[in-house]
DNA sequence: AGCAACGCCTGATAGC
DNA sequence: TGCTATCAGGCGTTGC
């Protein structure tokens, strides 16, 4: 599932390829993936636009177009945004294809959870979730002190807090489990109960894990591919996610799988104690 | 405030 | 080329 490092990798890969390209034709093959505006308006408004810069906000991909329009895309679970030099055959589950003056950009999504929005700069409120996003965890504004502030008074589980896009934008199930393991914190600990030392360790772990994820081109567990359709490499570096029963890289004891925050959750019961004392 | 359940989806997998 | 139930999860919504 694409999280911040995967989306960042896609944006970095697509940016140089798409910059300056014109959109010649728009194919909407599955209308319900277009969340805004109507599929007809989407098609009409997109046709003839030129692509400027690309950016990322949380897990959203933003294509800035001529005339001040922004094509916003969320890949959710299984979405892919891939540039094809040859505008020939489209893979199964391709729902939107943009024919460019050279090649084609396609949105492919097996489970159809992903969505596209075409908005003006004043319409960010049309994109569900976008205007309510929390801090970018790799930006300067996300400091150890601001993280401490986020935790203050929150009795909920630390994993739930890390996954809450309204607080921190971009963490998903994989990087959350990895960050908690690196910091040695049990996913079900109450956020407000973390010590100063634990808070610092978790803050650093989040920044490190995301940075390393980007450096390795993201994590490909099942569906994720980059702008060119290539898999990432961070799955080789995972220490807990998807490793139930396998030995912990730090202590050698088996990784446990539970459900926390409604998600499959992997952790080491020895290195990540529910009640550290 | 916090959390669980649900809906949206299809492919992989387990059980029979 | 077996059939069917279950599971995976981002995220908005609903209800406790």
Describe the fold and architecture.
The protein is an alpha+beta fold and 277 residues long. It has helices at residues 4-18, 39-46, 144-151, 158-163, 173-183, 196-215; strands spanning 23-28, 34-36, 51-57, 60-65, 69-74, 79-84, 94-100, 104-109, 115-120, 256-260, 263-267. The chain is built from six helices and eleven strands. The strands form three sheets. Strands 2-9-5-4-3 form a five-stranded mixed beta sheet, with helices on one face. It has a four-stranded antiparallel beta sheet with strand order 1-7-8-6, with helices on one face. Strand 4 (60-65) and strand 5 (69-74) form a beta hairpin. Helix 1 (4-18) packs parallel to helix 6 (196-215) and helix 5 crosses helix 6. The longest helix has 20 residues, at 196-215.
Summarize this structure as a short list of keywords or feature phrases.
DNA-binding, alpha+beta, 25% helix, 11 strands, five-stranded mixed β-sheet
């Amino acid at each position: 599932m694409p999280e911040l490092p995967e989306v960042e990798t896609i944006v970095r890969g697509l940016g140089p390829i798409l910059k300056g390209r014109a959109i010649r034709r728009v194919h909407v093959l599955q209308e319900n993936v277009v969340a805004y505006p109507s599929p007809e308006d989407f098609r009409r408004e997109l046709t003839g636009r030129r692509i400027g810069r690309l950016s990322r906000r949380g897990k959203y991909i933003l294509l800035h177009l001529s005339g001040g329009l922004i094509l916003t895309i969320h890949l959710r679970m299984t979405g892919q945004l891939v540039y094809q030099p040859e505008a020939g055959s489209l893979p199964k589950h391709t729902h939107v294809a943009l024919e460019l003056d050279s090649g084609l950009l396609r949105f492919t999504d097996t489970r159809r959870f992903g969505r596209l929005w075409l908005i003006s700069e004043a319409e960010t409120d049309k994109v569900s979730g976008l205007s309510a996003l929390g801090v970018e965890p790799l930006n300067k504004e996300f400091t150890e002190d601001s993280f401490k502030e986020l935790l203050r008074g929150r009795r909920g589980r630390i994993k739930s807090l890390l996954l809450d896009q309204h607080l921190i934008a971009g963490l998903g199930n994989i990087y959350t489990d990895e960050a908690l393991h690196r910091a040695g914190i049990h996913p079900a600990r109450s956020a407000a109960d973390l010590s100063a030392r634990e808070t610092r360790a978790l803050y650093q772990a989040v920044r490190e894990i995301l940075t390393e994820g980007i450096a390795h081109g993201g994590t490909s567990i099942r569906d994720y591919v980059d702008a060119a359709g290539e898999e990432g490499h961070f799955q080789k570096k995972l220490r807990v996610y998807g490793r139930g029963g396998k030995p912990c890289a730090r202590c050698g004891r088996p990784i446990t799988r539970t459900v926390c925050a409604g998600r499959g959750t992997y952790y080491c019961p020895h290195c990540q104690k529910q009640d550290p004392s």
